[in-house]
Design a protein that fits this description.
alpha/beta, 10-stranded mixed beta sheet, globular
Length: 250
């Protein structure tokens, strides 16, 4: 098995949560890389122990039939994408451009607003990455909406591209950064230990203040959320057993 083979594809749009966005007219495509250091390179530099242990990388099909090395076809594909990104950026960027162009055309042909999430299981500052002669991928596709989650406080400072929306991810130990983000009108995603049948309250008290609470599992289209809100995500997979403080109690 050669983990350095060129991946067959970079984007996917059949994630069950992504499909939920179609009910509000949004079709999303996501790129899943191998998170943290699983590929040999760290693509989640601000990951916390709780985040690493509860990572959605092994949820759903990503965690089925893993071998003794923690690999299945999905994990192998994610490692190959990450190594391709690290080792051959020109070819990676050309493949990504082809796939974004094809996806945008497909979404619009079917009457949907296209949206692209490049950090499905990574936290790469794409706004700082030159892309095929452009300042970044967002400049290459100025009429396409991009969005991501991040734990990098510095990524929230300054001006992001107009077509790039970031949601800050709450984890154990970064409450101050999350409070700063909320004060600036930036949304903060928090993972809660609740069942699927629990109905969230309208507001949630965090760091001494109350904020609107949005059910983030209804869709993945974070760029449609009201600013300055807490985005509630239900703990899934190993996250349901978290004891680090990464997963919050409602």
């Amino acid at each position: 098995m050669n983990l350095d083979e060129t991946p067959k594809s970079l984007l996917t749009r059949d994630n069950p949560k992504l499909l939920k966005g179609q009910k509000i007219g949004v079709m999303s495509a996501v790129m899943h890389l191998a998170p943290h250091k699983l590929s040999g390179a760290n693509v989640c530099p601000h990951a916390t122990p709780g985040c690493i242990d509860a990572c959605l990388n092994t949820s759903g099909r990503g965690g089925i039939g893993l071998d003794e090395n923690g690999h299945n076809t999905i994990q192998i594909a994610r490692i190959r994408r990450t190594r391709f990104f690290r080792n051959n950026r020109p070819a990676f960027d050309k493949m990504l451009a082809r796939e974004i162009t094809a996806f945008v055309k497909y979404a619009r042909l079917h009457g949907f607003t296209p949206a692209v999430r490049l950090n499905g299981t990574s936290d790469i500052p794409w706004e700082k990455m030159p892309f095929n002669g452009h300042k970044n991928v967002f400049a290459a596709y100025p009429d396409v909406q991009f969005y991501d989650y991040t734990k990098w406080p510095i990524r929230l400072r300054g001006t992001l591209p107009k077509n790039y929306n970031l949601t800050f991810s709450l984890a154990e130990g970064n409450d101050k950064n999350a409070a700063d983000a909320l004060a600036a009108g930036i949304n903060v995603a928090a993972v809660f230990r609740v069942s699927k049948t629990v109905k969230y309250p309208a507001r949630y008290r965090f760091n001494g203040r109350e904020y609107p609470l949005i059910d983030g599992d209804e869709t993945d289209a974070r760029f449609t959320d009201t600013g300055g809100s807490i985005i509630a995500l239900r703990a899934k997979g190993r996250g349901r057993y978290d004891k680090t403080g990464f997963v919050r109690e409602l």
